[in-house]
Specification:
The protein is α+β, with helices and mostly antiparallel strands and 850 residues long. Among the domains are: 127 residues, no CATH class; 84 residues, no CATH class; 53 residues, no CATH class; 79 residues, no CATH class. The protein has 30 helices and 30 strands. The strands form 7 sheets. Strands 9, 10, 11, 12, 13, 14, 15, 18, 19 and 23 form a 10-stranded mixed beta sheet that branches. Strands 20-21-22-24-25 form a 5-stranded antiparallel beta sheet. α10 packs antiparallel against α12 and α17 runs parallel beside α18. It is globular and about 90 Å long.
């Protein structure tokens, strides 16, 4: 392309689909270059203010100019049509407007007082700026600057006085009103009438900040002592009043604290309070302290978890309760516990958030999955197709969340009385599925952050009624600390319908048979107090407050005005019999939840078949024990019925002409769907490399190392319990997000003989098995210098009197000082820390208190 063509610029080039309109003139069209200077305001836009503003910013300003490499350029028909469309002119424009300068002036539509134009080539076209418009623009800019300045002054004043600069306190009081909430719960009788006003008033007050100390962190005693020292200093300051942290006396080992939220102004005015706040932030980032609402800590404390237990948290995100479970698994201060926890969440994004939260604990006993809690897959643990069942299960189910009103301002506006109705079926489905995964003698905790009996006692009653022979509620009154005030569960409640505006007002219903048919899409039969009667064909319960056949009073209700916390509901179950126990053949299919035609959520045939197979095993043992003759044997009768039903179902699907099928059937034996693989099975040479380079002895349980199949970037270590779970059949049905703790990451430096480098998060687990080859003992002073500078050359270290790094092979290593150890990288002529900024801050704190 010629130089002339390079300088030529067409109006609208690149903005039109018309090639001719945006084309650059060819060399044949170009005789010489002419310049047309575009003056300010020529195209209806005055950029003089921008020029001044840009100069004030210290930026070079180049006024716009357009260069046209054309002396006379006859536009194409397509281009001329576009101009005519915009200008509404006749074809006369074709004859009069040949020069680009005149065309641009006509297209701009500007009218100015003085216009000097020359249509000959090489003459500049100048248009004077409208002075009046310029003055108006300056005036508007001045007003805008003044408005911005006033806002800045007000913001600084608000910071100084402690006033919230974003939300007016009076506005907050105004939005903390919801007439439907007040009416609904006042008439629901969840509390004595004389307490309701106090209950409603405290919901409008801010929720206290709560946090707990990580009890399995090896430095937790130092953290606790630091907190106690700060608290003692705060108590001596009159201005703080009661805003210093106080222990939650009901929490085990007094490792949880609560204190009133402080404004920014109060923190700025008091350096001690500000330092304490920064201390909490730092310790939280390092996993030594966890922020968690007080009532949210209760469910896990009632699970009574021991280090060898297998646990599943079916609705785990964002992870505060999962971390609490991990603490209890590690309570014996074993870095590799025998038990494990599966943390599951339906939402993929929340599952990955859980991964981020759990990294603060660095546990090898954590397995994170992303499955629908209503359909958690069964895992076969042996050749007899026995299902894996869990010692402990936590069901902190999705709910309306009205117990969180003190911290959730949006709910004041969004609450309506049917939120609980929509959550009820989902909650019931999740709880029943969890029942099936619970081991005999195991414990399950069901919890919500709601006051609504439709989400609480109604779900518990419906689930218990369907599994009356297997499950029962546990009396935990002796397990709960006397410092925690709670109320027993409700026995009687009514179900509400908000009506249909002016046509029909709201109504309360005590029994399902009184609900009109058109309201039964919202109101379900399982929401009523007669659930037990409905499922068990018993006479109606006596209509009195003492009747409690399901022991619903064993549930715990926590109200905000009792403990100055949020609202919560907890129910603790135990399994007394497995699903296939407690039946004899004659009453196997007598009235129970599966045969009740009113129950719409029935198990699928696959689940019934598993049930029948378990029954056949027990029946075989029973007949052999009682010497039942073969001709009188009743074995395979139930199973044959189920098989026939499955065959009929398959034939019906085939006859329909529609392709049916589940992914689990299509890929029933596809092990590649499970993304992790044992390291020693396919990468034994890699383990030998790591063992030799880092001096790892033979006692290390290398059989518990896994890597992701599609990438070998990281190698993770899992506990013994998780290793057994990995051997389960049909494990590919689990959508795995993360597992265990990462020990090694792929090394990108080809100069190092070690193929993988050490990771700080797995260092504590690996250190006891490493020899001194890649461990370097340093002084406390040198560690502090590393934390400040991060990188040192060998020459700098030699001048400081430290030559122990030289002679080491390039690659990852560890420096230790006392009980602190940090990963480093030894290069060809330098040494660098391999930890993040927040970890550096934490190590500095620990070094000071060492």
């Amino acid at each position: 392309m010629s130089n002339q063509a390079t300088k030529g610029v067409s109006i609208g080039a690149g903005d039109s689909d018309d090639d001719e309109f945006g084309r650059i003139p060819s060399a044949a069209d170009v005789q010489k270059t002419n310049t047309v200077e575009i003056m300010p305001n020529q195209f209806g836009y005055d950029d003089s203010d921008e020029e001044e503003e840009t100069k004030d910013m210290g930026t070079d300003y180049d006024p716009p100019t357009r260069t046209y490499g054309i002396e006379e350029y006859t536009m194409s028909d397509a281009t001329m049509k576009l101009f005519e469309r915009e200008l509404g002119q006749t074809s006369q424009l074709r004859q009069e407007s040949k020069a680009p300068a005149k065309m641009m002036q006509t297209f701009s539509g500007q009218t100015t007082e003085t216009t000097t134009e020359t249509l000959t080539v090489g003459v500049e076209v100048q248009i004077n700026t409208n002075k009046q418009e310029k003055e108006e623009r300056k005036g508007r800019k001045h007003k805008k600057d003044k408005k911005w300045h006033d806002k800045k002054v007000k913001r600084e004043d608000d910071w100084a006085t402690g006033t919230n600069r974003k939300i007016d306190p009076n506005y907050i009081l105004e939005i903390k009103q919801n007439q439907e909430f007040e009416t609904y719960y006042r008439e629901a009788n969840i509390l004595p009438a004389e307490e309701f006003d106090k209950f409603y008033q405290i919901l409008k007050e801010p929720l206290d900040i709560c946090f707990r100390i990580n009890s399995v962190d090896k430095h937790f005693e130092k953290t606790q002592q630091e907190i106690e020292d700060l608290v003692q200093k705060m108590k001596g300051i009159d201005e703080l009043k009661d805003k210093y942290p106080k222990k939650l006396l009901w929490y085990p080992n007094n490792l949880a604290y609560t204190f009133n939220e402080c404004s920014r102004g109060e923190m700025r005015a008091n350096p001690l309070l500000k330092n304490f706040h920064q201390f909490l932030i730092l310790e939280t980032e390092m996993g030594r302290i966890f922020r968690q609402e007080a009532v949210s800590m209760i469910p896990v404390t009632l699970l009574n978890i021991e280090p060898h237990h297998s646990v599943i948290d079916v609705c785990a995100a964002p992870g505060s309760k999962t971390i609490q479970i991990l603490e209890q698994l590690h309570q014996a201060h074993e870095k590799i516990p025998k038990g494990f926890v599966i943390a599951n969440d339906t939402d993929q994004k929340r599952a990955y958030l859980l991964t981020h939260q759990a990294r603060r604990l660095n546990s090898s006993a954590l397995f994170i999955t992303n499955n629908d809690a209503r359909f958690l897959p069964y895992l076969k643990i042996d050749e007899h197709n026995n299902n894996m069942k869990f010692d402990r299960i936590l069901c902190d189910v999705p709910c309306s969340g009205d117990g969180t009103l003190r911290k959730n301002l949006a709910l004041w506006k969004n609450f309506n009385s049917h939120l609980g109705h929509s959550c009820h079926p989902l909650q019931l489905h999740i709880l029943e599925r969890a029942f099936q995964h619970l081991k005999k003698g195991g414990r399950l905790v069901y919890s919500t952050c709601s006051f609504n009996p439709i989400e609480n006692e109604a779900v518990v009653a419906a689930a218990l009624s369907r599994h009356i022979k297997q499950m029962e509620l546990v009396d935990v009154s002796k397990e709960v600390s006397p410092h925690l005030k709670y109320r027993p569960g409700l026995v009687n409640w009514r179900v509400y319908h908000r009506g249909k505006g002016k046509r029909e007002g709201p109504a309360w219903y005590e029994t399902y048979d009184k609900v009109p048919n058109y309201k039964r899409k919202v109101i379900k039969e399982t929401m009523f107090t007669d659930t037990y009667t409905m499922f068990n064909n018993e006479t109606d319960r006596p209509d009195d407050m003492k009747s409690d056949p399901l022991n619903l009073r064993r549930c715990l209700r926590l109200f905000p005005h009792d403990n100055n916390q949020g609202g919560f509901f907890v129910a603790v179950f135990t399994k007394v019999l497995d699903e296939h126990e407690g039946f004899i053949y004659d009453d196997m299919y007598q009235m129970n939840a599966w045969d009740d035609p009113r129950v719409k959520q029935k198990p699928i045939l696959d689940d019934i078949r598993e049930f029948a197979e378990e029954f056949e095993k027990d029946l075989k043992i029973h007949e052999e024990k009682n010497n039942v003759p073969q001709e009188l044997s009743q074995q395979n009768q139930i199973l044959s019925i189920v098989k026939d039903a499955q065959d009929q179902q398959k034939q019906a699907m085939k006859d329909s002409g529609i392709v049916f099928g589940k992914m689990s059937q299509i890929y029933d034996n596809k092990e590649h769907l499970f993304p992790f693989e044992k390291l020693l099975e396919t990468k034994q040479d890699l383990w030998v490399n790591l063992q030799l380079f880092y001096g790892i002895n033979a006692e290390f349980p290398c059989e518990n190392l896994y890597f992701q199949k599609d990438t070998t970037n990281c190698i993770a270590f899992v506990s013994e319990g998780l290793s057994q779970l990995m051997k389960c059949q049909r494990k590919h049905k689990l959508k795995v997000v993360n597992l265990g703790v990462k020990l090694f990451s792929k090394n990108r430096d080809i100069k190092s003989p070690g193929k993988y480098r050490l990771l700080q998060e797995g260092l504590e687990l690996l250190m006891p098995y490493m020899n001194d080859e890649r461990k370097i003992q340093v002084s406390k002073l040198l560690l502090a210098q590393f934390l400040d500078k991060i990188n040192f050359t060998f020459e700098e270290l030699r001048n400081m009197g430290h030559s122990q790094f030289e002679g080491k092979e390039p690659g990852s290593a560890v420096i230790t000082s006392g009980d602190l150890y940090v990963t480093i990288w030894i290069g060809v002529n330098n040494v660098s820390l391999m930890i993040g900024k927040e970890e550096i801050k934490s190590f500095k704190f620990l070094l000071i208190n060492q």
